[in-house]
Amino acid sequence: MTTTSLLDRLAQRLGHNHVLTDYDLMAPYLNEERGSYASRALAILRPKDTVEVAASVKECAEAGVAIVPQGGNTGLVGGAVSTQNQIILSLSRLNRVRGINPANRAMTVEAGCLLAQIQSAADEQGLLFPLSMASEGSCQIGGNLATNAGGTSVLRYGNARDLVLGLEVVLADGTVWNGLKGLRKDNTGYDLKQLFIGSEGTLGIITAATLKLFAKHHETVTAFLGLASSQAALDLLARLQDASGEQVTAFELMSRNSLEFVTRRIPGTSDPLSKPYPWYVLAEIATSRRDGAMAELMEGELARAIDMGLAMDGTLAVSLAQRQALWKLRESIPEAQKPEGASLKHDISVPVSCIPDFLERAINAATSLIPGIRPCPFGHVGDGNLHFNLSQPKDMSRADFLAARGQMAEAIHDIAASLGGSFSAEHGVGLLKLPDMMRYKQPVERDMMRRLKTALDPKTLLNPGKVVE
Ligand code: FAD
Ligand code: ZN
């Protein structure tokens, strides 16, 4: 089948408006979040439901044309970029909430639902879908599951994979697997849904999911603390978990550089504390109880932490506006880094207890590779996950700085690996981190992954060249 006849058949099936070949119409789907890759495509497909996804996959499989599934296109590792002879299949039109079952604490949604839309739908039923991240207004649940996304509430509720009861998936030959069971327990062989979660579109196309829901929070207390060391952050976390009965929903670390970049570059932000400190923590505890006990608890813990010298200073958010202002400091860091020049970014994880050791070694390594470099680490310290970002020295050229990208990544990832850590904690592998798979994954792990890929996608038609080599 020629590509023209494939596109004709797809247009007949999906409608001409939903097979895009005009460059201007394709542009938003070809744009890559970090500008690191130039994406091209034969066409963009916009099926409206699972049946149309399955039909599209079948047509493409028969024609031998590879498909790159795409959600909100907010991924950070080049997982949704394509080449001239591939087709991007966008899930955006599969955006219905199929049903919410409060008694089962579960909801079934289509893959193209925005994460924020799912949070609101749960909230309207007096329930909580806890997955949360700065991209929630644009990323889709299918993309969240395909990347096993993390975000700011992993500490309490787990990664995306922990929030799934069932999946509906279109396989590489167009077969539909309906695995949308809402069961909490089901020990009947391999847990197939977990294969697709985190596989970044290389094993199947997720078209719907049954998700777990939780009790909605009626009280949320947010604190911002200045600390002398990252070890103090870990000690504080342990205290807060004990005191609150494990009700800590977020525990985010920020370095002094990251707060300085934000207050200098993002309008309407300011340092909430009167003096500068080397490290900061944004800590949040939340409960479904309505007795108002959390504010008192956090106040007491904060005062004790200052008395003990664990925290140097701190402030509590007492209104929603104050809470949002504190979160803005944390969530604006990547945006604030842009006007500071080029940056090198690493998304590492280590066992939580190794965070101080990692930071010391990684900052030393970065500084000795590029004197004058401005480390700007921040992230989900309660999960052992740091965004170890580095901004260029003020007096260095952008090009010279970026030329060190590979060498720097190797140095930082080697340190994480030596502590038993990972080179990709929550962003995935995509294209960007394929070389790291070769360097850090055991041969036996790569071999098992390759065998799974061959079993489920023997013709390598689903997102070829990503994740597995
Ligand atoms: P896309 O970018 O469209 O795709 C990502 C990958 O999944 C690709 O490989 C694609 O082929 C595949 N895919 C997409 N949909 C499907 C599907 N239905 N079936 C099969 N495969 C599919 N990530 C975090 O984990 N935590 C964060 O805190 C976080 N914060 C972010 C903040 C900002 C401002 C930005 C821009 C990104 C952030 N990210 C974060 C990264 C990104 O938002 C997540 O990786 C998100 O899960 C990607 O979802 P998406 O719908 O945009 O997927
Ligand atoms: Zn993150």
* Beta-strand content: 15-25%
Number of helices: 17
Radius of gyration: 23 Å
Mean pLDDT over the full residue set: 97
Helix/strand/pairing category: alpha+beta
CATH class category label of the largest domain: Alpha Beta
Q: What is CATH's topology name of the largest domain?
A: Uridine Diphospho-n-acetylenolpyruvylglucosamine Reductase, domain 3
How many runs of DSSP E, i.e. beta strands?
A: 21
Strand order of the largest sheet: 15-12-14-13-19-20-17
What proportion of the residues is helical, as a percent range? 25-40%
**Looking at the structure, what is the overall shape?**
globular
Describe the structure.
By secondary structure, the chain is an alpha+beta fold. The chain has 4 domains: 3-90, Uridine Diphospho-n-acetylenolpyruvylglucosamine Reductase, domain 2; 97-215, Uridine Diphospho-n-acetylenolpyruvylglucosamine Reductase, domain 3, CATH 3.30.465.10; 219-334, Alpha-Beta Plaits (2-Layer Sandwich), CATH 3.30.70.2190; 341-426, Alpha-Beta Plaits (2-Layer Sandwich). Helices cover 37% and strands 20% of the residues. The protein contains 17 helices and 21 strands. The chain has helices at 3-14, 23-30, 50-63, 115-124, 141-146, 154-157, 192-196, 230-244, 256-265, 293-307, 320-331, 333-337, 355-369, 398-403, 405-418, 434-440, 443-456, and strands at 19-20, 43-45, 67-70, 87-90, 97-101, 106-110, 127-128, 164-170, 176-179, 205-212, 214-215, 219-227, 248-255, 279-287, 313-317, 343-344, 347-349, 374-375, 378-380, 385-387, 390-391. A 7-stranded antiparallel beta sheet has the order 15-12-14-13-19-20-17, with helices on both faces. The protein has a 5-stranded antiparallel beta sheet with strand order 5-6-10-8-9. Helix 13 (355-369) packs antiparallel against helix 15 (405-418). It binds flavin-adenine dinucleotide and zinc ion.
